[in-house]
Design goal:
single chain; about 170 residues
Length: about 170
């Protein structure tokens, strides 16, 4: 049995157990993570061109072009043009969601600081501080979506005349 590694072993930097330990067997240097090489790298020519086409597709769509026209302009088919536009819209939506989370967190921090000040006033004997604390708690619950929507049940249907009569009866009772 030869002590030199086989040619398939040199080309593949896997450990004897079959795993990838990130070490190049030829020189011992660390290899970049698999997602940072070749076409998957963020700076690869292919990925940059695709990003440019995606941005251009969205720009053309904003100008009112349909997907067929966008595909002709970019040199791709209609479905690819559609995919470019939808992909970029999804990226923008993700950014908006991230910014919304950041703004919500910032608002919660502000409410916490306000609540602490209002609570100090309550502890100092200021009864109006109780109302302020409650209002801050209501705002916080609303921001976090903790207040459930109220269910309104109705039994049957009302005719237009019954509805008008009901409204008139309510006005007379005042």
């Amino acid at each position: 049995m030869s002590s030199a590694p086989s040619s398939s072993r040199r080309a593949n930097s896997r450990t004897p157990s079959g795993g990838d330990d990130g070490e190049d067997r030829r020189g011992g240097d660390r290899l970049m993570a698999r997602t940072n090489v070749g076409a998957a790298a963020k700076s690869s020519v292919r990925r940059i061109r695709t990003t440019e086409k995606t941005l251009k597709a969205l720009e053309l769509r904003k100008r009112g072009m349909n997907y067929t026209q966008i595909g002709e302009k970019l040199g791709c088919n209609r479905s690819t043009a559609c995919r470019y536009v939808l992909s970029e819209l999804e990226n923008l939506a993700d950014k908006c969601r991230e910014e919304a989370v950041h703004v919500r967190d910032l608002e919660l921090q502000r409410l916490d600081a306000l609540y602490l000040k209002a609570w100090e006033a309550v502890e100092g004997g200021d009864l109006a501080g109780i109302d302020r604390c409650l209002r801050i708690m209501e705002r916080r619950a609303k921001l976090l979506g903790l207040d459930a929507a109220e269910k309104v049940e109705h039994s049957g249907t009302l005719s237009w005349m019954e509805l008008v009569q009901s409204a008139a009866d309510t006005d007379e009772g005042r």
